[in-house]
Design goal:
single chain; 501 residues; seven-stranded mixed sheet; five-stranded parallel sheet; globular; binds NADP nicotinamide-adenine-dinucleotide phosphate
Amino acid sequence: MKELKSFLGGRWVAGGGTPHTLLNPATEEPLARTAGGAADLGAALAYARDVGGPALRALSFAERGALLKSIAGAMQASRDQLLELAIANGGNTRSDAKFDIDGAIGTLLEYSEIGNALGSRKFLVDGEGIQLGRSARFHGQHIAVPRRGVAVHINAFNFPAWGFAEKAAVALLAGMPVLSKPATSSAMVAQRIVEVIHEAKILPDGALSLLVGPAGELVPLLGAQDVLAFTGSGETGARLRAAPNVIRHSIKMNIEADSLNAAVLGPEVEPRSDMYELFLKDVVRDMTQKAGQKCTAIRRVLVPRELSSSVKDDLIELLSAVKVGNPAEEDVRMGPLATADQLAAVREGVERLGGKLAFGDSQKKFDKGFFISPILVEEPGEAAHAHEVFGPVTSLIPYEKDPGGIVARGNGGLVCSIYAEDQAFIEALVMEAAALHGRLFLGHPKIELSPGPGTVLPQLVHGGPGRAGGGEELGGPRGLAFYLQRVALEGARPVIQKLIG
Ligand code: NAP
């Protein structure tokens, strides 16, 4: 069985902590073993700060962007192998695996372009200079410089490639060294990506570290110049936010957590119209892609009461055609959940939602593997607005007049999608939902190859208020701000102008 090592302090190391066995969730066959806890994380962080940080800060944005392009190239060259690992260790169908790996490559390339556009600068000039006194000599200018610590990235199990890349691309471009910690259960893909980057000798020493296995003392070791970007459950996020050193040192932290994303069908949409079909397609894709283990997946389907039974019948028909099984088989459309714990949590979550099962059976036994069928719940209880079931599970919720009020009960989310033709309805719902979300997706059948609300694009911000963690990632150049310290320069204009170039 493959031993997964961490890459810390510039070398591959095996931790001495409790070993964890990584499985194929379709067959329960052991694939790899890891151990984490006992590595000297303090020394690894110091190496990244002292060796990786200066090396990256010495490069311009364009040079750092070129590194990202090389990483994307190395991943592209190993794409087939990465896809196979994602299928075996993640329960992904080939299409799910492509979504993760190609999404990672696309994000790296987008940030490489941003670096190219920022050019030969090593820090950002933020806005115009400001005359501060009566004469033009007294001048002010904001700049933003790379922070001098380590960007620690803790990722969820569902996107081991994209989760790694969407954080690492932005931090490296900003000029901060990265220590990435993938979720243990699906770490094989992220581990191989770091191996590939290392083998291709792309990054300066200390610029990229990897911790495989549990985080151990990682977070308590962080200091004032480090930043922590976390993706995972709201519960873990809240625990990390309350860590004494995070509070004491005002450690910058970004949390990407749970979300009860809603898709709203407008009242005037005719069954069988293009808009209606698009809505059904997006709901079914979000329920089944990655077996619903997507933070952006649609969890609540809001439909006008008079269309409720038509939508239900159509969703049942489409879900009946989804073949669930071992994703290594080509005709399978939905693989298993990632772990036995995930399966238990989803089964328990379906019970919590209450209501009636319009489709699926959460207790159905499979011979092997962590499988569950897609589940459509109708008339759920209040838990549909309070509890995220992280699997192929969606609640059908009829509304009379005010879908915005129902959407708001989710207490903040990553994305709300609207499928409507009436501009007044769209505008009212946008205004109601905007403050509660990181992104609003306005579905339209004329948009060619629409990726649906579940796809996170590097050009747009990803995150959301409230339940979603209050974080914001990506968004093109906006994402750099998390890794940069903004500072106001105040002094004589010629001195400042020479300094900023
Ligand atoms: P999780 O159990 O909270 O774990 C997330 C990460 O945190 C894993 O790497 C885990 O490591 C690590 N972790 C756990 N305890 C920790 C601690 N005390 N100190 C430091 N790290 C710790 O979440 P998950 O089950 O992997 O992911 C599912 C959740 O993530 C869902 O709720 C989903 O909504 C959310 N999610 C959100 C987004 C988003 O962008 N908003 C994206 C994807 C997923 P181990 O694996 O080693 O325990």
